[in-house]
Amino acid sequence: MRAASARHKWDGELHNFSASLGASSPMPVPDLSLPTATLAALVVETFNIGAFTILFGGCLSFIFTKRMSDVNGVLTPTLCLIWILSIVHWVVDIIRARIAFIDDPANAVQYLTDPTVPLDGAKLGLYASITIVADFFMLYRCWMVWNHNVYALSFPVLCWLATASTGWVGTAEIIRTQRGGIFIPNLQPWIISFFSLSLATNVLCTLLIAYKVLLSQIYLRRTGTHSTGRVIPALIIFLESAALYSLSLIALLVLYQTGLSISFIILDWTCSVIGIAFSIIIIRLSIINSRLRSAQSTTAASLPPLHTPSSGNYPLVRVSRLVTRDDWSHRHYSESGSGAEEDRLDRKTSDTDV
């Protein structure tokens, strides 16, 4: 009897505790106020712009020196355009912050949530432009790696065209929208589609490049061809930079769908990190290339002259050919005992440039 009473009392307390849990409201997700998020985003973007500018100067130093003297006409304009657009985007954010917090601090929130302000439309248009330019170069890189194979890039190109369309149409919709900010329902499909399509374009191109490079490395191992040792480190660098940008986009998508003001920080972070990732690839690949050339020069200087017999009009000598690619403009060295075999393997190796 006493045990049944204790059990009844315990069941009642458990029921009351469960009811209190059900009646309690869910814990709100911590968020920043819009002015705080705007200022924090400006600080983050300022640091990133400083880092990007230093890396940009380093890239130009590599490009216009002997280490990358054969640079093509696509890499340099793309890098300069991304840097210029990033600087203009940063200046627009500074002007918006000055107007909101210095010129009219009483109406700061009202100004920051008004998408009809020309500077707000310019900010989002610049972000869309930076993304479109960066995705275009990703497509170009993939196109060169796949040896101008149109069929391999058909779907990524469609994703890029859709990214450009949603980016510009979304910017126009934001300019035409009345007060309410970028979280109003009629704008969310455009913005979410833009982020998602850009993410899809980068992931597809990254997978295609990685597949082509690994496939070529398998082929070279099967044929017993000596690899320069640059391709796999270059692929790792490329994958790391692609992962940095892709993770930033995923975080931006998740935070934007929750409607948190902290998404403005990730937005400005992603805008500036595009150029940082772009520059890191160029600098690290150039350093690897320079080290390999130094090692090859040291090895060649330490070896005695090689004299081999010849047969007819085709001398059987070791030939070192300099292959210049126009996608990353690096020099690659491949060796073989036959001129015809060398040409074939050089073309195969050069097709895998990252």
TrEMBL record:
Keyword check for Nucleotide-binding: no
Protein species of origin: Mycena indigotica
Annotated protein name in UniProt: Uncharacterized protein
Region (Disordered): 331-354
Compositionally biased residues, Basic and acidic residues: 341-354
Keywords for the protein's UniProt record, in alphabetical order: Membrane, Transmembrane, Transmembrane helix
Segments crossing the lipid bilayer: 37-64, 71-92, 124-143, 150-170, 190-211, 231-256, 262-283
Domain of life assignment: Eukaryota
Signal sequence coordinates: none
Keyword rRNA-binding carried by entry: no
